[in-house]
Amino acid sequence: MKLLLTSAGVNNKSIHDALTGMLDKPIAESTALCIPTAMYGHPWVGPGVRTWDFISGNSENPMVDLGWKSVGVLELTALPSIDEERWMPLVKETDVLLVSGGDALYLNYWMKKSGMAELLPSLKAVYVGMSAGSMVMAPHIGEFFVGWTPPGGGDDALGLVDFSIFPHLDHEMLPHNTMAAAEKWAAGMQGPAYAVDDETAIKVIDGEVEVVSEGNWRLFSK
């Protein structure tokens, strides 16, 4: 798997260069699918205008508007109601998945219910996550980030990487996302945990982890 796990999208040259290095063709020749599902589970970002902004490439977080050959929409909540042959070939053929922020547990629920979670490890596509779209890859998200509550409770996520992510470190609009809060969060997590600001991303290729940053980040190891 090739993962680019960002806090706020592809918003600086270092992260952009990391993305282009992960692709086997130029962005202008690459097809993308955007997945806005996480937004619907979060009261700040969806549904409504901000979801449309993400899908249309008019948000403040560069992902959809990077110059892709084509961009489609893959809505995970719709997938259980249609036949797999209607959507699986499309996903298998696409070059990039662009997964929005929002609520990580809501996204995790629909990743699993839709069948997308089972499909992800076999895909050739580069997975580009933003905030919740990145956090969902971890084994757990931590109590600090629990908003929407899944039917069975808990904070379990997909576990496709062995570390957890605390995004938006020291963001001016999120006064509780401090380094002190990240330290407390990390103390309650099992395994490695990263706190990353909006100028930072984590690149994962075949299990090899590399931090790409023009800002601040910290690894909490156990």
Automatic annotation (TrEMBL):
Keywords: Hydrolase, Protease, Serine protease
Any Pfam family: Peptidase_S51
Gene3D superfamilies per record: 3.40.50.880
PANTHER family according to UniProt: ALPHA-ASPARTYL DIPEPTIDASE (PTHR20842:SF0), PROTEASE S51 ALPHA-ASPARTYL DIPEPTIDASE (PTHR20842)
Family per record: Belongs to the peptidase S51 family.
Name of the protein: Type 1 glutamine amidotransferase-like domain-containing protein
